[in-house]
Specification:
heterodimer; A: alpha/beta; Aspartate Aminotransferase, domain 2; Aspartate Aminotransferase, domain 1; 2 domains; seven-stranded mixed β-sheet; B: Aspartate Aminotransferase, domain 2; four-stranded mixed β-sheet; 13 strands; globular
C-alpha cells in the first residue's frame, strides 16, 4: 500500500470534465478578470460564513497584506502573532514596514491568549491569531484583550475555511479574516487564490479598490493599490467545488476521529477537539518523540508524512536579518521538533488510516 | 456594447476555437501541478527566446513584474524612481508600494519619456529609471542606457505594452536590468487571467526574482528573504505556451492595420499622427493618434458602433492618489496636451478590411459634416 500525503491527482481526475466545462463557459463570456463568476462565488461564501462581505484575491498572502493595510498597520507598528506559522503571515507584516511580535502557543499549537498582554506596547496596532491546522484560536479572550487595548484583529484563517469556534465561522471574529484557496487547502482552487471576510463595509470597499490598482473607475485613482484579482476561470471552478465542501470537511473530520480512536495516545500526543471547536483538519498533526526515526520508518512502509513547519519563523534567516534580539518561545521550539502531519486528505480510505495507525503504534511498542 | 460594429475586445473571436488549448490545460489539471509547474518552466524558456534574453520569470501580473523588479534591485523607502508622467497607474503603484517616490518626466510625441529631460531629475536618491514603452512605442533606449551608465542607475523597462517592440532593432525588455511584461487578457500576448513576465540577462537578479515571487523560499521550509506570493499559474503558462507561437504573426497584422489607418488618416487635416520613426518598431498594442474636437469624435464613433477609447483621459500625475507629490496642472505640458487630444482606435489582428475602412470612413465623415 502506497499512501501519498496529498492527492490532488485523484481530485483532478474525478473533476476534470466538470472543470473543463467551467473553463469553456468562462471562455464563451471572455471575461477573465473580475467577472460575474467572482461575484457569484463571493456571495455564496458570504452566505455560508455569515460574513457580510467577501472579496476574492490572488492569494492568502495578499489577503493578509491587504487586510493589514486597510486596518492601518504601517511603518513602525507592531503586530502580535505566532512564529509556528507559514512565513506568509510574518512577511505580510514586514512588507508594510511593521514588526511581527511573536508569542508562544498552547499545546494545540495555537496562540496562547494569556501571553498577549505582556507584549502590548504603545506601538502595538493589531493582533494576528493564526488558526493553524484548521483549528480556530481561543477567540473569546483574544477579542476581550483587543477591545481593552483598542487593537485590530486580523485573523490568519488561511488553513481554516469552514472551521468554527462556539458555532461561529473562522474568519468572522476579527476586523478581517484571511483565507487561502491554494491548491493544497481544503477548499482549493486550480492555482493561487485567497479571500477576505469582513463585516465592515469600509474595509470591504477599500480592499475591493486596492485589489484593482486602487482605481475608482477605469480612469481615476484615489490611492495606489495592488493587482490582486481572482480569475473568473478559477472562480467558476470553485463554484462547482463549493457543492462538495461539506463532504470534504466531513470526510476529514471522520478521518481525524478514526486516527484519534486508533492511535495509542499514551505514546502520542494529539490535541483534543474541545466542545467549543469544530475543526476542519487542514492538517492532522501529532506530537511525538523520536520523530525523525518515525518518519523513516513510515517512509519504508510507503507512508508519506510532512512537517508543518520544521523551522519556526523567528529562526529563519530572513527574520534574523530584521531582528537582532532573541525571541524566547519554548513551546514553539519544542513542538517544532515533535510535530508530524499525517495524511488526512478526503480521498483516504478507512483501510489506509488503519494501516497508518497500526504502523505508528507498532513503532512505539 | 451590443451590436457594436467595431468592438474593442476581440477575445470572443480569439477564443472561438480552443480545443488545442483545452487539451493542454486538461493535462495540467490531471497532473495536479498547479503552482510553479512544468508548463511554467517551458513558458519561461519560450518567452526568454522570443524576447532574446537569457532568463524569464513568470509572475502574477505586469504590475507585480515591476514591483518585484524594483524589489530585486533593492528599491526601498525614500528612494526615487524616474518614470514617464503619462503612464498607467500600475507603473507608479509598483513604485509607491515599496515606499519609493515616483519622479516624473514629460513625454515626446510618441508618448514615451523624453530622454533629454531625465538628467535634470537625477538626484542622490535616484535609484532607478523606469521608462514606459507606451502604446507599443519604445523610448530612446540608447540615450537612456548611456545615462544609466554615466550615473550608475539601473534601468527597469515597463514593457507591459511593448512585447516585440524594438529600438534600433534591439527588443524591448533586453535593454534594462529587467524588462517587465504583462499577459493581461487585453495584451498582444495574453492568457486567461492576470499574468506577467520579467526578462533579464542577470543571473543574480534572476535568482532573486525567483525567490521573491515564492515567499523567499529556498526550499519548502526555509526562507532567506521576505518575499511575495506572485506566481504565474501553471494553467495559464499552458495557455501561454499555446498562444506564444502566434505572437509574431499577430504583431505583424497589427502593424499592417496601423499602416492602413495611417494612410487614410493622413488625409484628414484635423488628425495628427505621431512621427513613425524607422528605428522605432511600434507593435501597436494601442493605436493612438491626436484629434481635433476629440470628445465629439469619440462620441460620434461610439454612436456609429466603433468602440474608441482614451488611454488615459485623466493625467496620472494629477490623480488624488499622487497628491503628496504636489504637482499642479502645467507641470508636464506635453502630457497635458496629449490627454486632451488622444484617441485610441481598435487595431487588433481580428479586424477585417471592411471594419478598418468603416472606421476610417466614419472618422472622415465626422470631419466632413
Amino acid at each position: 500500500m502506497q499512501i501519498p500525503f496529498v492527492n490532488l491527482k485523484k481530485q483532478s481526475e474525478l473533476e476534470k470534465n466538470i472543470i473543463i466545462k467551467s473553463v469553456k463557459k468562462v471562455l464563451k463570456k471572455s471575461s477573465f478578470i473580475l467577472g460575474d463568476d467572482n461575484r457569484i462565488l463571493e456571495k455564496k461564501i458570504e452566505k455560508y460564513t455569515k460574513a457580510k462581505y467577501c472579496a476574492l484575491l490572488n492569494s492568502g498572502t495578499d489577503a493578509l497584506t491587504l487586510a493589514l493595510h486597510v486596518v492601518g498597520v504601517k511603518k513602525g507598528d507592531e503586530v502580535i502573532t505566532c512564529s509556528n506559522s507559514f512565513i506568509a503571515s510574518a512577511a505580510a507584516i514586514v512588507h508594510l514596514g511593521a514588526k511581527p511580535i511573536f508569542i508562544d502557543v498552547k499545546d494545540d499549537q495555537n496562540m496562547d491568549p494569556k501571553l498577549i498582554e505582556k507584549k502590548i506596547t504603545k506601538k502595538t496596532k493589531a493582533i494576528m491569531p493564526v488558526h493553524l491546522t484548521g483549528r480556530v484560536c481561543d477567540m473569546t479572550p483574544i477579542i476581550r484583550i483587543a477591545k481593552k487595548y483598542n487593537l485590530k484583529i486580523v485573523e490568519d484563517a488561511a488553513q481554516s475555511f469552514g472551521s468554527k469556534y462556539k458555532e461561529k465561522f473562522s474568519g468572522t471574529f476579527g476586523d478581517i479574516g484571511c483565507i487561502s484557496l491554494h491548491p493544497l487547502k481544503n477548499f482549493n482552487g486550480v492555482g493561487d487564490g485567497g479571500l477576505i471576510l469582513t463585516n465592515s463595509k469600509k474595509y470591504y470597499e477599500r480592499i475591493v479598490s486596492l485589489r484593482n490598482h486602487g482605481i475608482k473607475d477605469r480612469n481615476f485613482v484615489d490611492e495606489f493599490g495592488y493587482v490582486s484579482r481572482y480569475d473568473s476561470l478559477k472562480a467558476a471552478i470553485l463554484i462547482n467545488r463549493f457543492r462538495s465542501l461539506k463532504k470534504i470537511i466531513n470526510n476529514r473530520r471522520k478521518n481525524a476521529k478514526l486516527y484519534q480512536k486508533l492511535l495509542n495516545t499514551k505514546k502520542i500526543f494529539i490535541p483534543v477537539e474541545t466542545k467549543n471547536e469544530f475543526n476542519t483538519y487542514h492538517t492532522f498533526v501529532i506530537q511525538v518523540e523520536n520523530r525523525e526515526k518515525l518518519i523513516d520508518y513510515l517512509k519504508r512502509k510507503k507512508i508519506s508524512t510532512a512537517i508543518h513547519y520544521p523551522i519556526p519563523i523567528h529562526m529563519q534567516k530572513a527574520y534574523k536579518r530584521i531582528n537582532n534580539f532573541k525571541v524566547y518561545l519554548p513551546k514553539t521550539m519544542a513542538q517544532s521538533k515533535r510535530i508530524l502531519s499525517l495524511p488526512i486528505n478526503d480521498y483516504l480510505s478507512k483501510r489506509e488510516i488503519i494501516y497508518i495507525s497500526k504502523n505508528i503504534n507498532k513503532f512505539y511498542n | 456594447m451590443k451590436n457594436s460594429k467595431v468592438r474593442y475586445s476581440y477575445l470572443p473571436q480569439q477564443f472561438k476555437k480552443i480545443d488545442h488549448i483545452l487539451k493542454r490545460v486538461k493535462k495540467v489539471i490531471q497532473s495536479g501541478d498547479f503552482t510553479l509547474g512544468k508548463e511554467l518552466g517551458i513558458f519561461e524558456k519560450k518567452f526568454a527566446n522570443l524576447i532574446g534574453t537569457k532568463y524569464a520569470v513568470g509572475v502574477n501580473s505586469g504590475t507585480d513584474a515591476i514591483k518585484l523588479s524594483l524589489a530585486a534591485i533593492g528599491i526601498k523607502k525614500g528612494d526615487e524612481v524616474i518614470t514617464a508622467a503619462n503612464t498607467f497607474v500600475a507603473t507608479v503603484g509598483g513604485i509607491c508600494e515599496l515606499g519609493a517616490k515616483p519622479v516624473f518626466v514629460d513625454v515626446l510625441e510618441n508618448y514615451c519619456m523624453d530622454a533629454d529631460l531625465i538628467e535634470a531629475k537625477i538626484t542622490k536618491k535616484t535609484k532607478a529609471i523606469l521608462p514606459v514603452h507606451f502604446t507599443g512605442y519604445t523610448p530612446n533606449m540608447s540615450k537612456i542606457m548611456s545615462l544609466s551608465k554615466k550615473y550608475k542607475i539601473p534601468v527597469i523597462e515597463d514593457a507591459c505594452q511593448g512585447i516585440l517592440s524594438s529600438f534600433n532593432k534591439k527588443n524591448s525588455g533586453t535593454w534594462g536590468i529587467t524588462g517587465c511584461f504583462s499577459l493581461h487578457p487585453l495584451k498582444n500576448l495574453n492568457v486567461w487571467s492576470d499574468g506577467g513576465v520579467i526578462t533579464t540577462n542577470n543571473k543574480k537578479i534572476y535568482n532573486r526574482l525567483r525567490l521573491l515571487r515564492n515567499h523567499g523560499l529556498i526550499n519548502r521550509d526555509e526562507f532567506i528573504i521576505t518575499g511575495y506570493n506572485s506566481r504565474l499559474d501553471t494553467i495559464q503558462a499552458a495557455v501561454g505556451n499555446c498562444l506564444i507561437k502566434d505572437v509574431k504573426k499577430l504583431t505583424n497584422q497589427r502593424i499592417l492595420n496601423a499602416k492602413f489607418y495611417d494612410k487614410e488618416f493622413k488625409k484628414v487635416k484635423e488628425l495628427k499622427i505621431p512621427k513613425r520613426e524607422k528605428n522605432n518598431r511600434n507593435v501597436f498594442h494601442l493605436y493612438v493618434i491626436f484629434a481635433k474636437k476629440r470628445n465629439q469624435l469619440l462620441k460620434y464613433c461610439l454612436e456609429k458602433g466603433i468602440e474608441c477609447k482614451i488611454h488615459y483621459p485623466k493625467e496620472l500625475y494629477l490623480q488624488k492618489g499622487l497628491k503628496f507629490l504636489n504637482h499642479k496642472r502645467g507641470d508636464f505640458p506635453v502630457t497635458d496636451w496629449q490627454c486632451k487630444n488622444i484617441i485610441s482606435f481598435p487595431v487588433d489582428q481580428y479586424l477585417s478590411k471592411k471594419q478598418l475602412s468603416y472606421v476610417t470612413k466614419t472618422v472622415i465623415n465626422f470631419y466632413n459634416k
